Amino acid sequence: MKVYLVGGAVRDKLLKRTIKECDYVVVGSTPSELISLGYQQVGNDFPVFLHPITKDEYALARTERKSGQGYTGFICDFTPTVTLEEDLVRRDLTVNAMAEDENGNIIDPFNGKADLDNKLLRHVSDAFSEDPLRILRVARFAARYHYLGFSIAAETMLLMQEMVAQGEINTLTKERIWLEIEKSLEDGAINVFTDVLAEINALPIILPPLTNHWSAQHSQQLAMLLTNLDGENQQLIAFCLWLKEIKPTEIKALSESLRLPNNYIDALNLFTTFYPTFKRNLATEEQVLALFNQADVWRRPERLNLFIETFSVLSKEHAAFAKKLKNAAKKATMVDVQVIIKQGFKGAEIKQQLDIARHTAIAEEFA
């Protein structure tokens, strides 16, 4: 039995990037042997085990044979005779098809190190085309390593374009599409991810509402905005900036096609509704109050704060306008409904007086 560090950990170690997780391949072993050594098997059809102490993933070396459509239609062979090279050849990119033995020696049968040096993302073999999920993974890697100057090899771009034309990408589940998008948002270059999909004609399939709004100019503008992001709301803000040109009426279809989390839906609904209203840094008291009401700043101030934080990223002028929104919100939320009630107003009159008082507070900033 031999154990090798494989995949992303080897790649990122060579790139001198922080290694987030370590995956290992075990050659010449069986499930029963690993279980006897204390490893915990995860999944019955997939030979992956958790180390008894580190909880790192250890997978038996395996080969795969296409048996159906999509990224799940494979038959695995993980007998002890499967070699390390047979395991590595089934991987997506050459930079992900390297291994390291226990002595630190790099096993690189597909010249992944050379592609790392040349900053190229290249598919290992024609078996790449059997798994449509790899299209999104390559787009994500292009986004992740864009800051290092990486690009996708021309032959890999052509192969992905052919896969899209053949319809394999249509078999991807909503959950997997969103997962790859979310990871690209986290990596901070969702514009590069989108550029790749646009170039291989996958954007109308993966993100139809974005198709008519995406352009090289939009991509460049977004890239500049993303460099200014920081903090815990970074992904949500990037998401809203990415899709700021779509219409609020398109969000329902988008959320259904991707099964977006509620916080992403709420943030995008608010931003796409009011960004067109305020993008020229002009507003009436009524428009500002409409924003406050839809954000429900009275009970959920964090929703308006996210809008303000996102709007501020657009430019210095927008940041100044957002500051006025923040000041107006602070004053409007200080209006005390109990004071109105004590003045003798009842029923619908309370709501009317409350709106008047809030208008007055907003006018101090926007009159």
TrEMBL record:
Keywords, sorted A to Z: ATP-binding, Magnesium, Metal-binding, Nucleotide-binding, Nucleotidyltransferase, RNA repair, RNA-binding, Transferase, tRNA processing
Origin: domain of life: Bacteria
Ranges where the tRNA nucleotidyltransferase/poly(A) polymerase RNA and SrmB- binding domain occurs: 149-210
SUPFAM superfamilies: Nucleotidyltransferase, Poly A polymerase C-terminal region-like
Gene3D superfamilies in alphabetical order: Beta Polymerase, domain 2, cca-adding enzyme, domain 2
GO biological process, one term: RNA repair
InterPro entries associated with the record: CCA_bact, NT_sf, PolA_pol_head_dom, PolyA_RNA-bd, tRNA_CCA-adding_enzyme
Cofactors named for this entry: Mg(2+)
Domain Poly A polymerase head: 3-122
Tagged with keyword Protein transport: no
A UniProt-annotated Pfam family: PolyA_pol_RNAbd
GO MF, any single term: ATP binding
The family this protein is said to belong to: Belongs to the tRNA nucleotidyltransferase/poly(A) polymerase family.
Protein name in UniProt: tRNA nucleotidyltransferase
Source organism (scientific name): Pseudoalteromonas piratica
